[in-house]
Amino acid sequence: MTDDVVRVRGLRKRYGGVDAVNGVDLGIRRGEVFGILGPNGAGKSTTVEILQGHRRRDSGEVTVLGQDPGSAGRRWRSRVGIVWQDQSAAAELTVAETVRHFARYYPRPRDPAEVIDLVGLTDKAGSRTKALSGGQRRRLDVALGVIGDPELLLLDEPTTGFDPVARRQFWSLIRSLADEGTTIVLTTHYLDEAEALTDRLAVIAAGKVVAEGEAGSLGGRAQAGATVHWAEPDGTARSERTDTPTRTVAELAGRFDGEIPRLRITRPTLEDTYLRLIGSEDK
Amino acid sequence: MTAGTAAAAALDPARDDSAARLPTAWRLGLLRGAMEIRMFFRLREQVVFTFAFPIVFLFLFASIFHDDMANTGSTASQYYVASMTAAGIMSTSFQSLGISIAIERDDKVLRRLRGTPMPPAAYFLGKIWLVLVTGLLETAALLVFGATVYDVDLPSGAAGWLTLGWIFVLGITGCALLGIAISSVPKSGKSATSVVVLPFLVLQFISGVYILIDTVPNWMLTIGSFFPLKWMCQGLRGVFLPDAAAALEPAGSWEYGRIALVLGAWCVGGLVLCLLTFRWKSRSDG
Predict the structure, then answer these.
(1) What's its membrane topology (chain B) (predicted)?
(2) Is residue B163 part of a domain?
(3) What is the ipTM of this complex?
(4) What residues are paired with A241 via a beta bridge?
(5) Orientation angle between helical segments B44-64 and B76-90, nearest 10 degrees
(6) Do A1 and B9 make contact, defined as CB atoms within 8 angstroms?
(7) What strands lie across the sheet with A237-242, from one edge to the other?
(8) Best interface-test mutation with A: which of B12, B47, B282 has the largest number of A CBs within 10 A?
(9) What is the pTM of this model?
(10) Counting Cβ atoms within 10 Å, is residue A119 exposed (0-12), middle (13-18) or buried (19+)?
(11) pLDDT score for B286
C-alpha cells in the first residue's frame, strides 16, 4: 500500500481515432510538487482533465485521493482544488466577493482575506474582476483553487502568458502552498519552471510517459557524460566529451602546468535532455 | 484492495474534514440567487432594457390598436396589458436564461462551478431566484404603467391577486426550466441569441400575444397550446379583462383548470428535460 495521492495505470483516451493519451502511468506522492512536462498536444491537458474528473477516459485505472474522479462526489471535490487556465470568474463581482462566495461551497474553507493576501491581491480586493490585469486574474484563479483548503491542487499551464516577474511571484506562491503540505500537480511547457518548482516530473510525448524522475536526474541526465571545454595556448577552442571529467581536467592541469585557459565543464541541461526525450533533438 | 480502504489510506488526517458538513443545496441556492441578483443589477444597461422592453412594446401595440373590442366591454389596450405581462414573464425567464446560461457555458463558468463541491441544484435554484425577482419587478412595472395609462383594472379582491400569483409562479418556473433546457441547444454563446429568440418570437405570434386570439388561425393556436405562453396570456386576460371578454376565447371561458394543468406539466416536464439534457461543458469542449 503506497501513500500515492494520484495513481494512474494504463490510461488511454482517443479523440476521433487519434490517441491523445496512450498508456500513461503515474504515481504522485503526498506532499510533492509534481510536474507534467511535454510539448503542445502531447496529452498533458487531457491527462490533467481526467484527474480533475472533467473528462472521461477510454480505459485505464485512475485513483485520485482514493477515488475514481469519473464518479467521485461533492466530498471528493471539496478536497481537490483546480486552477483553470481560462478567465471565467464573474466580471461584475469584486475579488473579495468572488473569493468569499466560493468559500461558502466548501465544508472547511480557508479564511478568504488570508487567501487574498496569499495570492497578493489584498490591494485589489475591492476591484471588480473585469478591472484586473491578466496576471492578477490568474492569481484570482489560484485563490479560487485553494480557498477550499485542498489536499491536492491541479494546475494546467498556470503561468502561460505571465511576464517574468509575475512568474517568479507565482512560483513562490506555489512553493508556499507546497510548504503547507498541499500536493501539487502542474503541467507546463517551461523547462525552467519545471526545474525550479517540481520535486519530480514526468515528460509526456505523443500520449506516453517517456521519462519520470527528479529534474536533476531525469532521463539519465546525472549519469550522462560531461563535456570539458578549454583553449589551446594558440587560442583554439577545444572540447572533449567524457564520462570522467575529473580525470580529463587532471590531465589538462598536468599539460598546462597551472591555470587551464577558458576551462568549463558542462552537463546536459534539462532542455537538452527534454529535447532528446521528446524526440526532437537537434542533431 | 477495496475502494474504502484506499480512501481511508489516502485521507490526510490533518485535513480530515469528513466531520465538517457540506453546505446544503438550498442554502447555496439562496447564496447563489443573492449573487446573481447583485450581478444583474450591476449591469445598468441590461437592467434598463430588461424592464423597458415590455413597456415599450405595450406602448406600441396599445397605441396602434386601441379600439374597443366588440361585445366584451374592454379595449385592445387592456388586452395588450395581459399579453405583454405574460410575454414579459417569459422574456425574463425563458429568453434571459436561455441566452445567459449558453454564454456562461461557453465562457467555462459552468465548468469552473462543476469543479467545486457546489451541488448542481444550487446553480438552478440561484437562477430561479434571479428570475423570480426580476420577473416580479418587471411585472410590477408593467402593471403600474398599464393601470395608469390604459385604465386596466387591477384585481380588486384577494381571489384575483391569488390567480395572478399562481399563474406568475407556475408560468415563470416552467419558462425558466424551458430556458435552462434550451441553453444546451446553441453550439456557442455567440449563436445563443438567435437560437433562443426565434422560437420565442414565433411563440408570441401563435399564442395571441401580438395578434388578438380570435384572429390567430386555429392550427397555429393548436401548436401554441402545447407551450406555456398561450395559457399564461389566457389566464392573465382572465385576471385583467371583464368577464364578458371570455367570449373571445376559443373555449368561451378562461379555463383556469386547464391552465394550471398545462403550466404545472411544464414545470415537471421542464425539470426532467433539464436533468436529462443539461451540459456543464460546451460541445467543443468534449
Answers:
(1) Multi-pass membrane protein
(2) yes
(3) 0.85
(4) A227
(5) 150
(6) yes
(7) A237-242, A226-231, A264-266
(8) B12
(9) 0.85
(10) buried
(11) 57
